[in-house]
User: What shape does this take?
Amino acid sequence: MADLGDLQSLTSSITAVTSPFRNYLNDLHAKYQSLNDGAVADYIPELALAKPEWFGICVVTAEGQVFEVGNCDQLFTIQSISKAFVFGLALEDHGRDYVNSKVSVEPTGEAFNAIVLDEVTNRPYNPMVNAGAIATADLIKGHSSTERLKRVLAMFQRYTGREHDINVPVFLSEKATGFRNRAMAYLMLNFGMISDRIDETLDLYFQQCSIMVNARDLAMLSATLANGGVNPVTQERAIDEHHVQDVISVMLTCGMYDASGEWCYRVGMPAKSGVGGGITAVVPGQLGIGTFSPPLDAKGNSYRGIKVCEDLAKDFGLHVFNAAKPERDINEWIAGGNDLNDW
Ligand code: GLU
Assistant: This one.
């Protein structure tokens, strides 16, 4: 079994072209590398430094095979993708009913940063919009802000198999300019939906958005969910199996900003995207996909990332509701791939 510390070097050293699926991914990468649509997020200067041509695709199967092409070592900030996983930690900390009393699970159809709460219950609509993510961050247990952040970082390490750092300039920029998020936090405090440790909770929220990951990490995150909450390479449990379904469901209904309905219709993989250019997508029981490409469409989703997931869903019948015989059988295509557990 791969050791945690070895994971990075093990996965980095995979170069052999051993399965048709690897060739397929190479072709997919070449097909969309030249796509020049979309714009890199620039609401803070640090994000605008991302190169539009960066493009990585990684697929990790529930058996722990890793396939990757392009810029899979390039680090970027996880941003909104963190919301799904911190929601999982809040569920572990408090259980479903309590979390649901503070954050609903309804898609909004509104922008991720809309200042809107449920008029009857005053709850934020779901954990994937900023208001809901801040309410979720408030729920993370810990005796101090340091302990709460450590718990979040340790959780990500369980999912990805490696340690993560915060991008401090991004964190400080988010903190210095996040007036809208601050306004939402105070609105929720007014309604008694969050505790009064506002600054601490907002710091935790800005820090979780500033965690640095690469495309491989994003594939490990979703492969772990696909594998019932256990990292398929390290075999470490990242989340209680009873909460995996809760996290994945909210990803499917709310994970792709206000394009979630369209995404569900066209792609049909529970997924979460972030303005750093990442997408993590789950095919339950089968695999996780991580894509990284900074140019975003008007809704905030990575342009190339959407195309990649669309093609994978169509070509291999990976839409969760697909009932037709797929054009290609994923199991045949991945046969002969590298299995890290045998290394
Ligand atoms: N840190 C961002 C914010 O709160 C999240 C951006 C995103 O949607 O990825 O505005």
Q: What stands out?
A: The CA atoms of residues 195 and 264 lie 34 Å apart. The first helix runs from residue 7 to 12. The mean pLDDT is 92. The pocket of glutamic acid is lined by residues 79-80, 112-113, 130, 174, 181, 209, 274-275, 300 (CB under 6 Å).
